[in-house]
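Table S2 (continued). Query chain:
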Amino acid sequence: MREGQNNVIYRADYQAPGYWIDSVELSFDLDPAKTRVLNRMKLRRNLDAAPQPLRLDGEELNLARVLVNGQGTSFKLEDNQLVLENLPEGGDSFDLEILTTCQPAKNTKLMGLYVSNDSFFTQCEAEGFRRITYFLDRPDVMASFTVLLRADKAKYPVLLSNGNLVDQGDLADGRHFAKWVDPFRKPSYLFALVAGNLVAREQRIRARGGKEHLLQVFVRAGDLDKTEHAMNSLMASIAWDEARFGLPLDLERFMIVATSDFNMGAMENKGLNIFNTKYVLASQATATDTDFANIESVVGHEYFHNWTGNRVTCRDWFQLSLKEGLTVFRDQEFSQDLAGEASARAVKRIEDVRVLRTAQFPEDAGPMAHPVRPDQYLEINNFYTVTVYEKGAEVVRMMQTLVGREGFARGLKLYFERHDGHAVTCDDFAQAIADANPDSTLARLLDQFKRWYSQAGTPRVRASGLYDADARTYRLTLAQSCAPTPGQDVKEPFVIPVGLGLVGADGAELASGMHVLTQESETLTFENIGSEPVPSILRGFSAPVILEFDYSDAQLIALLAHDTDPFNRWEAGQRLAVNRALGFIRDAGVAARDIRLDPPFMNAMRAVLRHPTLDAAFKELVLTLPAETYIAEQLDVVDPQRIHAVREAMREQLARELAPDWEQAFEQHRESGAYRPDPVSSGRRALTGMALSNLCLAARASGDQVWPGKAYQRFKDAGNMTDRFNALAALVTSGSELAAPALQRFHAIFKDEALVLDKWFALQAGAPDRGGNVLPAVKQLMNHPDFNIRNPNRARSVIFSYCSANPGGFHRPDAAGYVFWSERVLELDAINPQVAARLARALDRWKKLVEPLRSAAREAIARVAARPDLSNDVREVVTRALAD
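Corresponding output:
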């Protein structure tokens, strides 16, 4: 691939490798200070490629020996590559042996082979394997791996790698070995190795076909009691994938290993998934309902990769959404199917959309905007984004919408029949879904549909309606557009499935269906409509677009009360709240303390809270005001302080005026029975927690100490982490004087539980900013004995919670938040560039900021960009942020 300015890699320059690697035998002598890696490979020239030297990728390796067919050979080391030229001609295989050493204990980047808590772990996606040995470190080179691990038996009694354990035993000098063979060819990014003093929860299962499998979840000894939910989630994932898509577990064993030092959430290495402890460990005493749900989702996600990512993988990293978008869709479907009830499924769908709209839509509108299938990158780690994952999942979901649930399953079956064992592209996947459904809308519009892969930005659908009482018709016009994004000024029309319904004044469903918008503008006519309806548009969030329709308050209140589509019912409440927030924000002459919410809005919210049949989880979603970041995206010029003040004023008024209803909700939904993290029980706890938070907030305004006192008592007496943490959060976010002793008590109880302490840190760093108090608190937290910036989870809990998730505290008038950000980005870049690059994105949308914040933010970004020793990870982010 061509290397242009800043070594930018272009999708258009893809070329097949000049060599194939058929098999790999790796021998590791594991030592934290100096690990010895012997790599024996069988290679052959790719006769379809032009003759070329063999260039093997390698980083931070000490090269000791290179042999070709057992003989020494000449080589060069240039630009982090081992270059070999005098190699056997023709297509016959030849042997290549490479001996290197590396230093896992000094690997703070957590890419390649590294040490965490006296154990060895690996992370090879996307380009970490080159930090273990010299290799063709690219996803389209798939090889068979045999791995021999040798280590001190007392220190590292557990030795794991991909595939099946074929041999193990003792060696001299207190050492031992384990030999693993992976029966499936895989690219190097799916390689994994774990060695440490670990214990396992084990479960044997029998699959539908009669095969027995061993499932293992490995953790440190003190965490074994927190692995039951992860194991249950793994078993549910295996059963679901076989039942829904006919995809069985294909290995004798499947292993999950948890580590506290991990850049990502988890990694789908073939048969040996390595997880961040955050997505494995859970007990009712230490994990919230959200943690339980996330573990189920992430365990499912990584297991589903066994087919959508491992058995069929990406030809190149531009195709990342081939595996990630598809697998996010699969884990969303898994969670919805496990939720069971239609209302619980709807809650899950709304939660997924909320992530998309608060994280991905801003990305689409910012300097890092890129298509689901990017065309270029400087550092591939920067493209593990919500666009590739969550928007990619929405693209797959639209395919299922256009071919139907059964049609999608047929398409996935054809995809595996064609491509099992190969590295392919997004086009190959889309073609398989279309070919399996030749009469479908997708097949007819496939070329146009694939613009979702190639065009960046969030399309807007502008809708307008006209009712003709005499003709009893309703005409609905839909027009689509998409704003320019970096490198893409002109956008062609997308294929947009639009779920539609018409709701009568009495709440009756007058019409429903799906329209596929393909032109810039189209008009639909509905016949025999007896009275002017309220259009319910984009039902179920049928496409990742921004809907523009000039709803009146009366129409939105009608949808909130009557729409049969849960998503649009929730959306109506969000629109009511956003409209009011925007009005208050734009009315600069009104101080936040003087804001008054109107009776129709308050009555609508009260009606939701009092509704006798709505699920508690759904009520909590409707009554949660839109996030400050989402409100900001609706504005051309953003004053984060004003947004924060307005939203807080709205929240306080809802708390005060609905106080009797919050009390009733609290008493009605609090549970005292056995803890279960199922959707219904979780929903009840969520609404109870919201009620308690609002009652403490209302008490703050009145000076009443009754509800803060009750919250503190609930904090002390809670039988599960969800209720305990909700009570603690209610005290902290309301600014109660009881927050300090509660925080102190919480730390004393959970000082030895790292994941719980992450919550403790994050709650304080993300607290509402009252008088500029959060930044000093954040700096104090960074000096806490339990803070360690080298641990990604701990860094995220403090620094990210402040810079990325607390806009009211971060965007300070004195720009001190931006100075703090620039210092932390540079500090982290020297330790772990991946983590630093994600933090760097906290100022993606700086150009929308009001002055003088805008200039101050630019100055902070420029300060980072000026450092000559920046990693590619951070350089790409800040350079794109500063671009015109």
